[in-house]
Specification:
Order of helices and strands: HEEEEEHEHH
Helix content: 10-25%
Shape: globular
CATH superfamily: RlpA-like domain
Radius of gyration: 15 Å
Distance between the termini: 40 Å
Number of helices: 4
Oligomer: single chain
CATH architecture: Beta Barrel
Number of strands: 6
CATH class: Mainly Beta
Number of domains: 1
Largest sheet: 6 strands, mixed, barrel
Length: 163
């Protein structure tokens, strides 16, 4: 009952849109991915300073009932919504990072360096509440292809998924 309540609060507060997160109908089991390696990042890290507090999807980094997370978009596409088992927070993949490409690691946004360090690296089980869009991931990445090799690598992986 906590998850629907948090989702309703997030939508009412304008943190997310109803289109962004639509949970599975009652009685439908969400797939569980076991032993997912998670790390944490914050907007004040040196390699994130040039992006400020915005995600690769162009939205503000979030840390509340709904939280931002980064991943290789060819593994967990943009818009993927998940929950860490034993954590009531809902996470949305809305960011990526060069160190994540080619891995199954998910990087969780934390608003401070202290919280980032406190998280460290953890193996967790996650429940996928909604899969994101590989097509949307590709659309966001294509204009950035010339900027970085890790973006080109994700594009190549996404294209190979389509064939």
């Amino acid at each position: 009952m906590i998850r629907p309540t948090l989702l309703c609060l997030a939508v009412l507060c304008g943190a997310v849109s109803a289109e962004e997160i639509s949970l599975k109908p009652a009685g439908t089991a969400a797939p569980v991915v076991k032993n997912v390696r998670t790390t944490a990042y914050t907007h004040t890290e040196g390699d994130h300073l040039k992006y400020g507090s915005r995600t690769a999807a162009g939205t503000p980094l979030r840390h509340g009932a709904v939280r931002s997370a980064a991943a290789d978009w060819s593994v967990y596409p943009v818009g993927t919504v998940f929950q860490i088992q034993s954590d009531p927070s809902i996470y949305v993949i809305d960011d990526y990072g060069s160190a994540l490409v080619g891995t199954r690691t998910i990087d969780l946004y934390k608003p401070t360096t202290g919280l980032m360090r406190l998280w460290g690296t953890r193996q967790v089980n996650i429940r996928i509440l909604k899969w994101g869009s590989y097509t949307k991931s590709l659309a966001i990445l294509m204009p950035r292809a010339a900027k970085a090799s890790h973006v080109r690598e994700m594009i190549g992986r996404l294209r190979s998924r389509a064939t």
